[in-house]
Amino acid sequence: MEILIEILLKAGRSAVELSLFILLPVMVVMLSLMRLLEARGALDWVVAKLAPLLKPFGLTGLGVFAALQINFVSFAAPMATLTMMDQRGASDRHIAATLAMVFAMSQANAALPMMTMGLDIGLTLLWSLIGGLAAAAATYYLFGRGLSAAEGVVDEHLSHPVAESAKGVLDVINRAGAEAFKLAVGAIPMLVLSLVVVTALRTFGAIDLLTSLLAPLLDLLAIDRALVLPALTKYLAGGTAMMGVMDEMRRAGQVSVELLNASAGFLISPFDLPGVAVLIAAGPRVARVWKPAALGACIGIALRTVGHLVFA
Question: Is pLDDT of 120 > 60?
């Protein structure tokens, strides 16, 4: 019983520290910046310029918004864009390509706070873009080619607050701060649960047993055994939980900065059980195309993985 209480207290303390002292400050700054750019019309201008360039990859203007949201806001932010595509008449092929891109890209709520652990954010964003575009193209032209291409009259304008005065700017910053606080506090339960489970498995030897069973395969593929725990956590509990585990391992000296950056390609994305479940809830048409989108995402994540391994 004492061991269980110690595990609970340690996991709770780590989760609160990670959420309030790392995740919250980073997300407040980034969300405030993104929302200000949005309110000033800068993002509308960027989308208008990029949309024609990304059209050959199977993406529309709303797809560009989704890419900005996943990379600079959070993994759940593209839900609003996917819902609009679902409801406004975007074709199934375009929805599938956008969903694949989101699955394959780096999620801001994990990548940005992990800068404090030594993550190379420039390299991560570069390969996030490359992997996302590859996933979108693979889905649009290969895995989703049998989907309907029928396109309605799509309104690609996203409504958002306008900041034309000092008061408007302050309102936008306050809303962004509240959004960041909600994200940080909302992450605490999942972080606590995942850290409790992971710490318990580690304490009772389950992780060591799994690692020893996988050792021949890991050695054959030249994969560091230390990645078993964060990878298992990521694909079962999500990117935020993985970030918590990686933070613990970095503090303990079990993962180097080099290994962190080399593994970012397959560890930092919303392509996991919680992420897929959240994103496909954006609408019935989004849910129907998740399979070709998932196949396309595998191409993008594989490309990101190779990129990080070679250039990290």
Answer: yes
